[in-house]
Amino acid sequence: MKRVYLLIGVASLGLAVSCKEKRAERVAASYSSVTKASDHPPVPPRSHAPEKIVVGLDSIPVEESYEERAASTITEANLDAKVTELEKELSL
């Protein structure tokens, strides 16, 4: 009976080692496929920092500029159409 247990233990140990080796091979293969060089040429590094864009305060719209534009584009004749248009914009 001891021989049977010993045989089962040795067989289990052999299976565990072989499964571990196969897993290690699969993991190594997956890493090597991820790190393969692609057909795309590498992107060259930037030689300098991107230029900073300076924005003046006059270019930022404020409430008054919207009011001026609305006063010039919205009239009593097209008020309902503009309200409907704004409602459609807001419902998206």
Keyphrases for this structure?
92 residues; 0% strand; mainly alpha; 3 helices; 62% helix; elongated
Shape: elongated
Proportion of helical residues: 55-70%
Main beta sheet, described? none
Average pLDDT value? 76
Determine the N-to-C terminus distance: 77 Å
Flag low-confidence runs.
Answer: none
Order of helices and strands: HHH
Structural class label: mainly alpha
How many alpha or pi helices? Answer: 3
Q: Give the tally of structural domains.
A: 2
Which strand-content bin applies to the residues? under 5%
Output the radius of gyration: 36 Å
How many β-strands, per DSSP? 0
Please outline the helices and strands:
Elements: H1 2-34, H2 63-73, H3 79-91
Explained architecture:
This protein is mainly alpha-helical and 92 residues long. It has two domains: 1-35; 58-92. Helix content is 62%, strand content 0%. The longest helix has 33 residues, at 2-34. 0% of the residues are buried.
Summarize the entry for a quick read:
With 92 residues, the chain is mainly alpha-helical. It contains 3 helices and no strands.
